[in-house]
Amino acid sequence: MTERTLILVKPDGVARGLTGEILRRVEAKGYRVTALSQMQATQEQLAAHYAEHEGKPFYAPLVDFMLSGPIVGIVAEGDRVIEGFRALAGSTEPTTASPGTIRGDLGRDWGEKVQKNLVHGSDSVESAEREIGIWFG
Ligand code: DAT
Ligand code: MG
């Protein structure tokens, strides 16, 4: 089976009207979009999605941020798409993410307890399959 990844355009990306630009980069890279849906996250979905971060200082601000407005869920497909999308996204902190990446070109620090960095991308095959189940189950 072709590799799949779960991408989320976070509330900052949707609110800033960057969904199209983010999708454009995914498609321009050559990945195929096989599912696309705007949604309002629930507490339950976020608890499952971010279980690995529970207990960290940014966990509550992260969940509040992800509940603050609509998100767009995307399933993208292609060889090595997990690694490829994380390269397109750039590193977690938008201030230092490389120019040329989504976070580096379009993101910045807003002085808040959570980094608002526009996108989520799965980090392994196991995470991708688990996360696709949470958002597109
Ligand atoms: P990534 O989204 O790059 O995989 P992650 O999984 O470590 O990063 O963290 C999930 C999200 O939590 C991240 O996109 C933004 C936020 N975050 C992570 N580390 C943070 C920190 N030290 N301070 C504030 N927010 C943070
Ligand atoms: Mg992560």
Structural features, described:
Its EC number is 2.7.4.6. This is Nucleoside diphosphate kinase. Pfam families: NDK. It catalyses: a 2'-deoxyribonucleoside 5'-diphosphate + ATP = a 2'-deoxyribonucleoside 5'-triphosphate + ADP. Keywords: ATP-binding, Kinase, Magnesium, Metal-binding, Nucleotide metabolism, Nucleotide-binding, Transferase. The chain is an alpha+beta fold and 137 residues long. Helices cover 42% and strands 18% of the residues. It has 7 helices and 4 strands; from the N terminus they run E-H-H-E-H-H-E-H-H-E-H. The chain has a 4-stranded antiparallel sheet with strand order 2-3-1-4. The longest helix is centred in the C-terminal third of the chain and has 12 residues. The model has no long low-confidence stretch (mean pLDDT 98). The structure holds 2'-deoxyadenosine-5'-diphosphate (DAT) and magnesium ion. The site of 2'-deoxyadenosine-5'-diphosphate has 9 residues, from loops. 2'-deoxyadenosine-5'-diphosphate binds next to loops.
Bound molecules: 2'-deoxyadenosine-5'-diphosphate, magnesium ion
Proportion of residues in β-strands: 15-25%
Which sequence of strands runs across the widest sheet? Answer: 2-3-1-4
* Proportion in helices: 40-55%
Total count of strands = 4
Model regions low in confidence, pLDDT < 50 over at least 5 residues: none
Q: Report, as a whole number of angstroms, the end-to-end distance.
A: 18 Å
Structural class: alpha+beta
Number of helices: 7
Largest sheet: 4 strands, antiparallel
Cα-atom radius of gyration: 14 Å
Order of helices and strands: EHHEHHEHHEH
**Shape category:** globular
Mean pLDDT: 98
Keywords: ATP-binding, Kinase, Magnesium, Metal-binding, Nucleotide metabolism, Nucleotide-binding, Transferase
Domain Nucleoside diphosphate kinase-like: 2-137
EC number: 2.7.4.6
Pfam families: NDK (PF00334)
